[in-house]
Sequence to fold (381 residues):
Amino acid sequence: MLHLNMTDCDKNDSLHQRSFVLFCPFLTESRVYEQPLKGSTVCALIHPCAAAARVDREPLPNDGRVGLPAGLITPHHRSRRVAMDFVLSGAAACGACLFTNPLEVVKTRMQLQGELQSRGSYRVYYRNVFHAFYTIGRVDGLAGLQKGLAPGLVYQFFMNGIRLGSYAIIESSGYIHTNGRVSAAKTTLAGAAAGVVGAVIGSPVYLVKTHLQSQSTASIAVGHQHKHPGMVLALAAIYKEHGLLGLWRGSSAAVPRVSVGSAAQLSTFSSSKEFVVDLQVFPKDSWLVALSAGMISSVVVVTAMTPFDVVSTRLYNQPVDHVGKGQLYKGFADCFSKTLKKEGLVGLYKGLGASYFRLGPHTILSLFFWDELRKLYHGRR
Fold:
């Protein structure tokens, strides 16, 4: 059992110290650490049999939470905290997905519309985001706007749980800071690395999600129609026909897509949070800080990610032959070059409005929920 007493020293004391006294029966000695934070903090670790405590004028080792020495964190507590970082991250992403999945359906349809066809040579079923919403709702029904929700939630929980959870661990270790400030280079690298891991693990479910979201009534169908009855049966059918590797078809596009998006999202989010705090527009711990940072991040994410998103959608949705080989594209580079050649730069930004309406709110909500859930959980410990 760990008992914590906190006492403020005399306000006239030139050091303006705050003392944290932790009574810990499993220590072999008593120690006092000084933490050079705002107002200088002293932490005393008191053993019941110790004659006296000694003071170390050194920074208090910690695991990312001020005032809690690393030596007091057992492997069980550390692993539980790591697990909670992943769970909270996944829960935040799922919360955002519930609101943004209809936008994902619209985005997918608009990115597949006119695939590898010159402008003006194909029928336009979806003129813009709002017309697409109306058309899908009228023809496929309101349920059509939530197609692919089940794999969407599973994908968000595992992909973003791993991605944001990994980044949270990197962040709490102090890696993303240089001289107490957020490092753009380090956050970009950490965000990209976390994104690669999440993309590889979540790729099979993203494959099925894309297939289900593109399915529609023949009168407004765009792209190849796979006709899956549901997520589980789709995964089973793909595995049965193309084997384990078939479930990772399209991952060559998923890795650059998510790594670029993750690097842009997390680096701008961390930097924007610091920027908003520096402006002192809102209190440091206000939920408005995370919300504002998420809004800034969303613009950067959509701009950087949309071309990769278009390529990813098309690679995942393309028809394949009996051996699982794509019939339209050989891979990421081939899809990128063919789209650019046939449809121009506009083709790589096809559905940009839909992309922002989906990626923008999803970025804002997922980062906001992620930040607030972490504060709520760790603030109660």
Notes: The two ends are 14 Å apart (CA to CA).
